[in-house]
Amino acid sequence: MNMKNYKQDWLSPLRYKLLPVAIVAATILFYECGSSLYMPTSSDAQRVGAPLSTVVQGRALYVKNCASCHNLYPPQSYTASEWEDNVNKMQKRAKITDTEKDTILKYLSTKSHN
Known about the structure:
Helix content is 72%, strand content 0%.
């Protein structure tokens, strides 16, 4: 057995043991990021003038499109105008449409401070 084959043989079992652990860890991390964010209520939706389903969809889009690159900030972290500036700056990088951006902003506006 040459050294190259030995190295591959040694890494194969390790790779197969670590891959499931990495997948589970990534899934938990993604779930935890999304689950700790505020879930809007019907009164929040009324306050921002949108159906609850739209605001909930905005939350899902926020998690899906923003958490892949950085930590998520709770809606109350910024004012509505600061959120709008932030999301406008990130729109191209996140590859979201204008409709998706507006839906995300509906969610972020539910608890933003003024």
